[in-house]
Amino acid sequence: FLAGFGSLMQDVLWCFSQVKGTIDTGVTESDIISTVEFNHTGELLATGDKGGRVVIFQREQESKNQPHRRGEYNVYSTFQSHEPEFDYLKSLEIEEKINKIRWLPQQNAAYFLLSTNDKTVKLWKVSERDKRPEGYNLKDEDGRLRDPSMITVLRVPVLRPMDLMVEATPRRVFANAHTYHINSISVNSDYETYMSADDLRINLWNFEITNQSFNIVDIKPANMEELTEVITAAEFHPHHCNTFVYSSSKGTIRLCDMRAAALCDRHAKFFEEPEDPSNRSFFSEIISSISDVKFSHSGRYIMTRDYLTVKVWDLNMENRPIETYQVHDYLRSKLCSLYENDCIFDKFECVWNGSDSVIMTGSYNNFFRMFDRNTKRDVTLEASRENSKPRAILKPRKVCVGGKRRKDEISVDSLDFSKKILHTAWHPSENIIAVAATNNLYIFQDKIN
Amino acid sequence: MLGRGLKRKLSDYEENMAGLSSAFDSSRSLPYPLKRQLVLNMCLTKLQTYKMLVEPNLHRSVLIANTVRQIQEEMRQESNQQPVNICPGIAPASHSYAGMESPGISLQLPSGVGQQESHCCDVRSVEDPIENSLLIVSDDDMSSAISSILKDLDFVEDISPPTCLVPAGDDQPKFPENTGLKLEDDRQDLKGAECVFGSFEISNSTSYLKDLAIDDIFEDIDTSMYDSDFCCPPLMPPRSPSLATEEPLKTFPSCNSSSANNIQICRTDLSELDHIMEILVGS
Q1: Residue B189 falls inside a structural domain
Q2: What is the distance in angstroms between the Cα of B129 and the nearest Cα belonging to chain A?
Q3: Is residue B242 in some structural domain?
Q4: Global pTM?
Q5: Sign of the alpha-carbon dihedral angle for B252, B255, B259, B260
Q6: PANTHER family per the record (chain A) (predicted)?
Q7: What torsion, rounded to 10 degrees, do the Cα atoms A10, A11, A13, A14 define?
Q8: Residue A138 needs a FRET pair 20 to 30 A away by CA distance; which of A42, A164, A182, B273 works?
Q9: Beta-carbon contacts below 8 Å between A and B
């Protein structure tokens, strides 16, 4: 379904498709969605939550009878990925919250994904079972052992169809390699290795080996009092298996080549934009901290998200981004309040669409923003139950900064900062997006003409 | 939005701070030094709060510490340029950088939150609620606040010399073992020749030990002899008998109960110890 794909912003009208989650006004903390990710074909959509659960949705086959229902996503599998743990040595509770999910490309009938909390990465296999063997000799249909002396006939068990069962089994557990909290995982394009990054270190794993990991980045100073910078996100290049990037709390991105040295302390490229002196404030450094970094599908660009902007960088130009988009610049005059209530530390993610022509990121008040890189147009949309009539077209929203507030605008002071959209995902080839609003997952699609 | 272990109660102080920060944002007439002081106080309060948590957030702590350092540097440069305005009545040990034209600041912060209460001179601008809520903090206090929070974040790590642990058999690492792994500076003098894999962290897959109270296992063992800086046992030949017998013992790694890996090291060392004792005693 590529018609309309990669089209200009003005041609795309986003419609509500589905919403998952309860409508209750009180939110159970464990239901808060903490990560959202489509798989490589877009057939599956996975979410992780603060309670350590993973829910996978599968897109139903499109049917000719209901052409307007363009493949809705239904629950495919639910499992408990991580449990809360207690580290006795340090007297610390390890949260079960799923920080990230990353899919492996499909190589056989089963699906594989990595899920991680603060300390432990797990490889999960999700497979279907729709047949079961019947007619065992030594046990009956209930599984009870039969009395051997009563068996007079030998038979061959046969496979009979059964109701589809989807099983999730943990195939590998990669533990005890991170002293600090894991913020990113990224599967390498060689499909044999992946990396996990915490505040100070990045480790390289082989999928087959769980009791060893290779430390490839270490920025921990000899004396912790000298620490001024932490790693905030990391990702492998989509095609070059030796290349990866990691971002820092100082707003810089380092590109590393694993062929150069075993320990990638020396970067191959260093991306940093000089500070704009007119925007300088006490909070300049805090808002420059990068919360997410993503390679474009083409591998030619990287996108970074800091508190107020999204930036696109060309890998060949290190001294400044090629594009900067203001997500919610009206917050610049509210930084002290946002610092006081800790909102300034919120970590927003950002995503590319399949053709790298549009980028999307979240904001407050359940708003999310899209920027068309070609036309330079942008739009603000809202994920809310009020806009959730089937196939209802989403109306663009606008925040009024000062002066007269128009009828449909909302003023900055009325924004609800507890409703933040931190996690979004874009289907790899179609205009379908998944937006996590606290404990609800919204799925929007572009309008079918 | 404070972390675990700290219940957030709405107190007068917090209401005050919320009011102050919106005053910061909305007021253009607030003098710069006052704004700076306000931000500084907020930073130090946050660091103080994080210190009380079992596991402070490293990312946030670093960002806040950097902000404090930046303000600190600015204030230092200013004080170098102009005489310091010290109010009488402040304890002589602390240097208070008032750095503002307005006379006297008094403190209204509840105890347990503020770092230090310094009672200023008699002239107070009681009418100005913003000024009345600010805390004068010394340069030393700022530095020590940053240092202490960052030091606390330096977790003791479960790193053991991998040469003692690489399992024989099929589970061999697929990566080349000697491709320029970096030795951390603070361990360079501690590692013996065998410990090449400075950055190669081995994880302990024997999870069955996780549930045991490790301290109980080692209750009977007197580990005072194993208090050594070496983490890897260099297999040295026994020294001349004239030396005290304690000395060879000190070359063995510290047998602290930090992981199952060290349990194996200790057992190895005890048998080596026996061997050396036999040689020394000549039996």
Answers
A1: no
A2: 18
A3: no
A4: 0.73
A5: positive
A6: PROTEIN PHOSPHATASE PP2A REGULATORY SUBUNIT B (PTHR11871)
A7: -90
A8: A164
A9: 147
